[in-house]
Task: structure prediction
Amino acid sequence: MRRRIGGVMLLSWGILFAINAYSQDDNPYFGETCTSILVGKKASADKSVITSHSCDGAYRSWLSIEPAATYADTAKAKIFKGNLKTESINDKNGLTLAGTIPQARQTFAYLNTTYPCLNEKQLSIGETTIVGRKELANPKGMFNIEELQRIALQRCTTARQAIKLIGDLIKQYGYGDMGECITIADKNEVWQLEIFGEGADRIGGVWAAQRILDDHVGISANVARIGEIDLSKPDYFMASDNVKEVALRLKLWDGTTPFKFWKAYSQSKKNFTIRDFFVLSSVAPSANLKYDADELPFSVKPDKKVSVQDVFAFYRTTYEGTFYDMTKNLKVAKTTYKADGTVEKVDTVLYEGANPWMGKDEAAMYNALKPGSVDFQRTVSVCWCSYSEIIQLRDWLPDEIGGVAWFSFDNPGQSPRLPIYSGNLSLPDSYSICGQQRYREDAAIWSFRKANKLATVKWQKSRKTIETEVAALEAKALAEQPALEEQVKELVKKGKNKEAREVVTRYSNDFARGAMQRWTELEHTFWGMFGRGF
Result:
């Protein structure tokens, strides 16, 4: 028997028991930012390759399309630090120049999100922070992860090219960030690349990359996951040439036991969190994964093909109906009366304000009233999300439309998915303004955030309205794709590539404006519902 959890009809009773039976490890970095789900070409329902990213935290919400460019042979590319929380593309506050590298003669256009994610050649990158041991970090390294992503998208067309370039840049110029995982996908493959510094006294870095098998699903949720590395299989593993030497030098590996990348360089006790377990066990109930296991497999073969809609649903996940449901104890008595005023029945129902995104103060209040009412869990969907994207890469379509980032502002459990294509020439003006530092009506994120936050106050009363609208926009976008794809294919066939890009740009931006208008209407609806009090 299966149950619907967080909008996904996936978990079996056995998996529910596994989640319910075991408490989570005391992981000091549990709850860190970002989740990335990966789907191989033969594991996806439509044979697309999928990667994804939720940017969970106070990161910038502005984004732009950076055009392709041609440079002189002597040109230099500037590498910056401090660009994760700027307020617009022209905001230089907090930016520092880390250095320069030789510029490429020709660069590709790309979608410039906080962590750049998609280029015009259908190369895509997701990201999650995996922290690592503090003795590995060296902030003097030139490159932070977001700049490595940018340079790779500007210069590469395949995942393997991107991994090699990133490895070369780290070796030559140094890695200055904390531990990071980037999930790199092209039209045929998806890889997980995990990177750490190689010590406070070394300019460089240590990294390993493992390919998700084509018929498998993987995930990165703020913990290193790569285990044993078999470099005799270059189609599936890549690593820095110092991958074991650093671990030996820093006494992170004894040199005799089997070398596992995550064990050597991660500070976590296991190679998974509840998010990893939830997604992997949901897509592969037959794998009989156990939450009390010491280690989970790097990836799993799903019991059935995974659609992009399934991935949408995973990003809405709050573990509803499981032991880890944060609202399960927030119940009140609801009395139904007969016509004559006498009591017909008394039911126990969820309190209308019960929601899985409550703040610390609200949870503390419930726990003060009744200890143990709310036990915080790191869900996939979080209210502090800046944005998220789920990216499909499709080799049967021209690059102008083959790559599509299903983008969402604010909480992915409440906001709709908006298509941005690899061929987009521009974005709506409101996308260019960050709404994270202050309230700004000209920032796109607030078009969604106002309605979402109002809905959260009485979530049990408003959720059906939100979920109905999300489903309607999702269905509309997916239903309209085939006709749009055919139109673009015909234009490209005739050599009208610019016109094809104009078509996808117009569709993408019109869809976004329509969604923003609808969420503004929802805000007004919720004020009408709650105007006399919550």
Q: What stands out?
A: The chain has twelve helices and 23 strands. The chain has a mean pLDDT of 93.
